[in-house]
Amino acid sequence: MAQRVINFNPGPSALPLSVLEQAKSEMLDFQGSGMSVLETSHRAKNFEAVLDSAIQRIKRLLGLDDSYQVLFLQGGASMQFAMVPMNLAAGKPVDYVNTGIWATKAIKEARICGKQTRVVGSSEDAKFTHIPEKITINPDAAYLHITSNNTIRGTQWKSFPDAGAVPLVSDMSSDIFSRRFDPRPFGLIYAGAQKNLGPAGVTLVIIREDMLKRVPQDLPTMFKYSTYAENRSLYNTPPCFSIYVCELVLKWIEETIGGLDRMEKINEEKAAILYNYIDSQDFYRGTARPDSRSPMNVTFLLPEAELEKEFLAGAAQAGLIGLKGHRSVGGLRASIYNATTTESVKTLVDFMKHFAKR
Ligand SMILES: Cc1ncc(COP(=O)(O)O)c(C=O)c1O
């Protein structure tokens, strides 16, 4: 077998080994069709079955009732920064909580789209190292947008704001399928697949029926959520192979892991191993405020920034890769999404101990 590294990349990121092995085994002959999924028509029965299965698995895992539609789009989470205000503003102001770079980008796009955009909470003055505790709920808002997990600073909303009748919209790119939550307050959820769901190239959008009624008729076809909803994401050619791998990952969460509750427990255990070690010594320093710490992205600093290069080189030599912090903030970051095993996190902690001692 090929020599595999332990991959702490923030996205695209590690995929479950069994998923990669299945994709490999079906690469030349997908379900007896004599060809790869890469070569299969998106209108073929066997691809449609994959698409339907992915949708059903998402609905079961998240406990979505029939008022929700599951859509697959392209353009990444970044395209959703624009599509959300274009589709859902309905002539009202749109509210955002700013918890970091991705939220800032979402706010920027809402403004470019000409929407009255209000920032109703922010932790910018604390360099986004925590989730803001004070946010203003405006009953006249079209929606309240949050970013459930700040991939760059390593913070996460532990519970979601109660906005009353105002629907929540969330960018869940870096923590979807990592934990259970009540979907009912959400009018729309979006996530680039490339962290917890599958490979890059596909974006998951979960939209409630009442939100679909807001879609303006005069938007270009490909920018309307209703186009994807009315055509089961098959208005044009979808990213078939990415959707196929997502289906395998969803199957792995449901059938190998045993569902979201179990996934959440494993993620909590993994994060505790790393955070407990960081808290137990004074060489490494965690950068997120403890009450806002993300179980997906663990951010930390060394006593001196000059040591980072040495740390990263030593880690790479030990087969641990992807630990460099985001280019905008520096430091170190271990992304420990669903597919990262407890063993991998323990190996990282062992390396950190060894490096600190040296
Ligand atoms: C929370 C969050 N939102 C949005 C994005 C951007 O996603 P994409 O590259 O799919 O546009 C990222 C990428 O890392 C992210 O972490």
Write the layout of secondary structure elements.
Layout lengths: L5 E2 L9 H9 L19 H18 L5 E6 L2 H13 L5 E5 L2 H12 L4 E6 L21 E4 L1 E2 L4 E2 L11 E4 L14 E7 L10 E6 H4 L12 H6 L9 H18 L2 H20 L5 E2 L10 E5 L5 H11 L2 E2 L10 E4 L6 H16 L1
Parallel strand pairs: 1-13, 3-4, 3-5, 5-8, 8-9
Antiparallel strand pairs: 2-10, 6-7, 9-10, 11-12, 12-14
Helix pairs in contact: 1-7, 2-7, 3-4, 8-10
The chain binds pyridoxal-5'-phosphate.
Can you characterise this structure?
Helix 8 packs parallel to helix 10 (342-357). The longest helix is centred in the last third of the chain and has 20 residues, at 260-279. The chain has 358 residues and is α/β, with parallel strands linked by helices. It is built from ten helices and 14 strands. The radius of gyration is 21 Å and the shape is globular. A hairpin with a 4-residue loop joins strand 6 (149-150) and strand 7 (155-156). The strands form four sheets. It has a seven-stranded mixed beta sheet with strand order 2-10-9-8-5-3-4, with helices on both faces. A three-stranded antiparallel beta sheet has the order 11-12-14, with helices on one face. The chain folds into two domains: 18-256, 3-Layer(aba) Sandwich (Aspartate Aminotransferase, domain 2), CATH 3.40.640; 259-357, Aspartate Aminotransferase, domain 1. Bound molecules: pyridoxal-5'-phosphate. Pyridoxal-5'-phosphate (PLP) binds at residues 11, 76-78, 102, 147, 151, 171, 173-174, 192.
Gross morphology is globular
Q: Specify the helix fraction band.
A: 25-40%
Distance between the termini: 33 Å
Given the helix and strand composition, which structural class is it? alpha/beta
N-to-C SSE string, H for helix and E for strand: EHHEHEHEEEEEEEHHHHEEHEEH
| CATH topology descriptor of the largest domain | Aspartate Aminotransferase, domain 2
Number of strands: 14
Largest sheet: 7 strands, mixed
Top CATH class of the largest domain = Alpha Beta
Shape-level CATH architecture of the largest domain: 3-Layer(aba) Sandwich
Mean pLDDT: 97
| Bound molecule kinds, no repeats | pyridoxal-5'-phosphate
